[in-house]
Amino acid sequence: xxxxxxxxxxxxxxxxxxxDCSKLRFYKDEGNxxxxxxxxxxxxxxxxxxxxxxxxxxxxxSVAYDNADNEFVEVGVINDLSELSEDQYKMIDDYLEYKYYxxxxxxxxxxxxxxxxxxxxxxxxxxxRKTICVRDWYSNFRMISEKMLYAIDVDGxxxxxxxxxxxxxxxxxxxxxxx
Length: 179
Prior knowledge:
- This protein is an alpha+beta fold.
- It has helices at residues 3-8, 86-99, 137-140, 169-176, and strands at residues 25-28, 34-38, 41-43, 47-50, 59-66, 72-80, 105-113, 118-125, 128-135, 141-143, 149-152, 158-161.
- It folds into two domains: 13-99, no CATH class; 105-176, no CATH class.
- The protein has a three-stranded antiparallel beta sheet, with helices on one face.
- It starts with a helix and ends with a helix.
């Protein structure tokens, strides 16, 4: 491949397009999906994604949609939701809280391996007692930082513990051999 071809084929993956919040107008369309008017363009059924979900709920929110060719296209990034009007903030925050709902693990009762590739973790969460069924332990039950634990069960439900050091001694002893 010659140098000319390489220069022509450029991707904008290194560029972060920060959106001007004063020009954003989010609304719910007829299907109750969040859509957006921005700079004279309309984007239907936009996807909002927290780019750093464990460390900031309101900063760096990606706004994207699927174009006519069904390709994922990012409109840009909201630097901070606090720059939105109160009603816009509430709409987007409600959506993100629903999308990123993660019960907090407050106690670990037991961890059992069924010898068929599944691990069953009996925990107490902020949504009640749950048995989290995990496949591929190393990918789906892991430490995000030195103290933060994150788990995804076989159904895609997500759970977290922001600081495992705040768990009781029995919970820590149960987790010790697995994390």
